[in-house]
Amino acid sequence: MEAKGVPTIDRITLSGLTATGFHGVFPQERREGQPFVVDVTLELDLDTVSDELANTVNYADVAADVEAVITGEPRDLIETVAGEIADRCLGHGRVDRVTVTVHKPRAPLTQTFSDVSVTISRSRHV
Fold first, then answer.
1. Among 93, 97, 74, 82, which residue's Cα sits nearest to residue 17?
2. Residue limits of the Dihydroneopterin aldolase/epimerase domain (predicted)?
3. Any catalytic annotation for residue 4?
4. Active site residue: 30, 83, 104, 116, which one?
């Protein structure tokens, strides 16, 4: 909904969706798997009046899509995982833009670190 020509930017955010995946370029990552944590922000025009699930995006469906990608076909790069999640999110008809962060907290680094992540934003209007 717009007020005086200014588009409304509403958001639905899912944070910390966690599942085990087998993504990575090293054999042990493909063999042993590891947790991946995903944050998703959906941008869409929200109907805040009707109180009908049909007039929004069901975030349970989005969470299931995220889990399916994480636990699905192994990918070398978390960039690819993030892209697949973004594509699925944009498949929910009301979503105009999505930002996806894929965290790989057990990435195979020798240095001390707390997280490795990739963040991408995609829009259906590009």
1. 82
2. 12-122
3. no
4. 104
Angle at 115 between CA 119 and CA 109, to 5 degrees: 115
Q: What is the pLDDT of residues 10-32, one digit of tens each?
A: 999 999 999 999 999 999 999 99
Alpha carbon distance 103, 15 (integer Å): 11
Whole-prediction pTM = 0.91
Helix residue ranges per DSSP H, the chain: 27-32, 59-71, 78-90
CA nearest to 45, candidates 14, 12, 9: 9
The amino acid present at 48, given as its one-letter code, is: T
**Residue 11 has which token pair?**
């958001």
* Residue whose token pair is 């973004």: 86
| pLDDT at position 4 | 59
Binned at pLDDT 50, 70 and 90, residue 48 comes out as confident
Best CA proximity match to 24, nearest among 87, 81, 86: 81
Domains of the chain plus CATH, in order, are: 9-123 (3.30.1130.10)
List, in sequence order, every beta strand (DSSP E) within the chain: 2-3, 6-7, 10-21, 34-44, 97-103, 117-123
